[in-house]
Amino acid sequence: MRLIIENAFTWDGIYGMLDENAKQKFSIEANINEQGRRIDIVKQDGKIAGSVRQKRFTPKKEYNLYARDLKMGEIERPTSFSGKEYKISFKNWMVSGDVFEWDFKIVGPKEDIAYSCIDGGRLALEVIDKRNDVFCAILLMGLAGLAYDLRETKKEESPKTDIDKDHPDYYDENANNLTPFKEAAKTTKEIIDGAVKLGRKTVAAGKKTYEAGEKTVEFGKKVVDTVKEKVDDFLEDSPPPVIPEEEEDADA
Question: Into which CATH architecture does domain 2-157 fall?
Answer without folding.
Answer: Beta Barrel (2.40)
